[in-house]
Amino acid sequence: MNSEELLKLLKSLEQGKLTPETALERLKHLPFEDIGFAKVDHHRAIRQGYAEVVFGKGKTPTQVAEIVRAMVRKKASRHNVLVTRADTKMFAAVKRISQSAKYHPLSGAITIERTKEITGKGTILVVSAGTSDIPVAEEALLTARLMGNRVEPLFDVGVAGIHRLLDHRPMLTEARVIVCVAGMEGALPSVVGGLVSVPVIAVPTSIGYGASFNGVAALLGMLNSCASNVTVVNIDNGFGAACVASCINRL
Fold this sequence. Notes:
By secondary structure, the protein is of the alpha/beta class. It folds into 2 domains: 3-7 and 26-112, no CATH class; 123-250, Rossmann fold, CATH 3.40.50. The protein is 39% helix and 17% strand. The chain has 11 helices and 11 strands. It has helices spanning 3-14, 20-27, 44-48, 61-72, 88-97, 134-146, 162-166, 169-174, 188-193, 216-223, 238-250; strands spanning 33-34, 39-40, 54-55, 81-84, 102-104, 109-112, 123-128, 150-154, 177-182, 200-204, 230-232. A hairpin with a 4-residue loop joins strand 5 and strand 6. The protein is globular. The two termini are 21 Å apart.
C-alpha cells in the first residue's frame, strides 16, 4: 500500500463507501505481516516510496514464493514485485504464484510488473563499462524501472575505447541521474562524472583479473575518484545504486 491508496481508503471510509470492518481488514497487516519465517513489510511504500524487494540468495524457493504470495494477494495494492539474486528454482516456485512473473537470467532477477506508473521526474541512465558488467547493470536497470522511473541502458562503453562513450554525449547530458557500472580498475565513473552535471552513482563489479581482488580494486578506485559528483555503492550492488537513483529522481 502506498500513500495514495491509503488516502483513498480513508476517504471511502469517511464517505460511507466502506464499513469500518472492511477498512480494518485491509489495514490489519500494516505495518507488516508475519508469515513465520519472514515479516513482510507492507508499509514500506508509504515510508520510502517503493515496496519491499526480496533478496533471493540464501532463501529456499518455497520461502521466496510465500513472501511473494503475501505481497501479490493484496488486490488493493498494485505495486511491482522484484526478487533479486534468484535462480530458476525460485522462479518456478514464484511462477506458480503469479503467471505474470518473468525471469531475467543475466541478473538473476524475478519481476512481476503490476503497474507502469512513472513517478520519477527524469531519465535514469544505466551505463556499463563492459559486456561482462551487464548482469549488475541489468539489476540496476530493472530495479529503477520497477520503482517507477524512465530508464535507458548504455552498455559496453568502457575507457578501453573511450570513443564509444563520447559517441553518446546527448544521452549522458540528458539524464537526470546516472548509474555507472564498471569492474577492472573502475575508471569509467570518473570519466562520466567529468562530462555531466548530475549525480553519478558508481557500482564496482567483481569482474577482473587477480589483482582486482573481486572488485576491491574498482571499489577503491571509485572511492578515490577525482570527479566530485561521483558517489559509490558496494561491490555488485546494482540494486542499491538503483534505489538511490530512484530517490534522487523523485526529488
